[in-house]
Amino acid sequence: MPKDKKAIKRDILAKFRAINGEADDVLPPDWVIREYLANLDRYERQDFEKALKELMSKGFIRYRKGPLPEIRLTEKGAALIH
């Protein structure tokens, strides 16, 4: 089943919850690249970028794109998942 933007946002926050993420924790880049992005098609990858931008605009995460993407939980994001 294809993932939409809403499902991707839920997955990202759920992963932070699963690792008991606190403010300034970063999702493991291996998980992001090998387990998550590897299973998305090109349209879902576009939605992935949009989902991250929406989570950033709401202040839940900070994101730095690159060869090893850095998705960092903010204090507001930590309060949301706990």
Give a description of the structure.
With 82 residues, this protein is mainly α. It contains four helices and two strands. It has a two-stranded antiparallel sheet. A hairpin with a 5-residue loop joins strand 1 and strand 2. Helix 1 packs across helix 3. The longest helix is centred in the middle third of the chain and has 16 residues. It is globular.
Task: List the keywords.
82 residues, mainly alpha, two-stranded antiparallel sheet, 4 helices, 55% helix, globular
Whole-number radius of gyration? 12 Å
- Succession of helices and strands: HHHEEH
What shape does the CA trace take? globular
Structural class: mainly alpha
Please state the average pLDDT score: 96
Tell me the total number of β-strands. Answer: 2
Annotation field: number of helices: 4
Q: Which residues form runs of ≥5 with pLDDT under 50? A: none
Name the helicity range: 40-55%
Instruction: Summarize the main sheet.
Output: 2 strands, antiparallel
Strand content: 5-15%
Describe the strand arrangement of the main beta sheet, using strand numbers: 1-2
Distance between the termini: 28 Å
